[in-house]
From TrEMBL:
Name by which UniProt lists this protein: ECHD2 protein
Record's keyword terms, sorted: Lyase
A GO CC annotation given for this chain: mitochondrion
Single GO term (MF): enoyl-CoA hydratase activity
Entry annotated with the keyword Lyase: yes
Family as reported in the entry's similarity comment: Belongs to the enoyl-CoA hydratase/isomerase family.
Gene that this sequence comes from: Echdc2
InterPro entries named among the record's database cross-references: ClpP/crotonase-like_dom_sf (IPR029045), Enoyl-CoA_hyd/isom_CS (IPR018376), Enoyl-CoA_hydra/iso (IPR001753), Enoyl-CoA_hydra_C (IPR014748)
Amino acid sequence: LRFDEKVRVVVFKSEVKGVFCAGADLKERAKMDNAEVEHFVKRLRSLMDEIASLPVPTIAAIDGYALGGGLELALACDLRVAASSAKMGLIETTRGLLPGAGGTQRLPRCVGIGLAKELIFTGRQIDGQEAFSMGLVNHAVPQNSDGDAAYQRALALAKEILPQAPFAVRMGKLAINRGMEVDIASGMAIEGMCYAQNIPTRDRQEGMAAFREKRPPQFIGK
């Protein structure tokens, strides 16, 4: 996906009805020794980092349970859409654990430190509507009879992104992600560098031409 220039947006969904991702298999985990657990979680954290660093926008379609590592997977995505009835939570403390695949870092960056601490310390599960009210998800939608309401809304959101200039969208994502980790002056410099890379693109020239000619732009990602 990272190197396929035809990919504009990636949507993560589950094929299991009622479950986005239920997290780690604790029965499997119980059979591991300490070293194996550490290696397993390190690989899991690396996977989440790979998802987070995909150059194109990513959307998690949460139509059911997203618990523990399942919510960490959703947090690694740029955008999250949930069914109102979906259940989410970093429940690790209820099992003698703590989030180990990015949850302690991505949740506070998403909802703020106070809410993140409350959710992690209590291991509380919240539904899609509660997640929307605290900014954990971008949209909460009523579940439909097929059980894929979040996926359908995620597809609609992806279709809003698709017509936009692909390289500009990628640079926008990069500027936001890198800029959020530094002070604003450094962030402005990052934005400037991303903007400079976008200036010579054919898509920028097409966007300007389409505006002058009062027609929809035809972007090609170059």
